[in-house]
Amino acid sequence: MHPDDHGHRQDLRATFDFMADRYVDQTIRVSRGDYPGWMDDITALVQSWAPESVADVGCGPGYLLERLSRTMDHADLVGVDYSAAMLQHVPEHIPTLHQPLEEWIESSDKTYDVVLLTFVLRDQPNPDAILSQLQKRLTGSGHLLVLETHTPIGWRGWGFHLYFEHWLPFWGQRRLAPDWPGAREQAPYRWLADSHRRWRRAPALPDRMRDAGYGNIERHRPETDVVMLWSATPG
């Protein structure tokens, strides 16, 4: 485990269940309209590999899966998530599995040409173990694709820090999720800010992938961006 791992994870199932009905609309707002473009970039990259099977792990309401299904009707798509409320929003023609990530890795007997993790890895109690174990679910020529938040280099980093870690929790409490009924520390946008604050390691992800045994590691977004997208193949 790398020294910056926090070694535990809150049970966020209630948080994701609460967000299910508003996740896509609010993610678009919070990303200042960039979220659809990020998903389009992932879709184009996945299409370039011409996979026969794709697993979106932590798929949420299926926003990315729906985009993939528009032009990849030949591919076997599946969504995996531990929030039943999120899975209710996945289009009916796309099969889903209601399981936590670790359980899916261990219990599944299938392999996929592409495994997607979008805003998922940072909330795992041991990201390095997850990266290593995910190779069980990849075909020999498969691709792992990881999208995570990223504090940009340069002056944009200061603005991102102020927005994401200070303004966002306030906006979430007052406007986006004032009806959150649970504990304050698990409120959706306070959790999101805290999660990124603990993460802060998107630039180190290629080293973590390499340590887990992956090869052909590629970055697909500039370091000045607020998200980072990496792909890799099994070693």
TrEMBL record:
The keyword Isomerase does not apply. It comes from the Bacteria. GO terms for biological process: methylation. InterPro entries: SAM-dependent_MTases_sf. Transmembrane segments: none annotated. CDD domains: AdoMet_MTases. GO terms for molecular function: methyltransferase activity. Keywords: Methyltransferase, Transferase. SUPFAM superfamilies: S-adenosyl-L-methionine-dependent methyltransferases. Pfam families: Methyltransf_23. The keyword Signal does not apply. This is Methyltransferase domain-containing protein. The lineage of its organism: Bacteria, Bacillati, Bacillota, Clostridia, Eubacteriales.
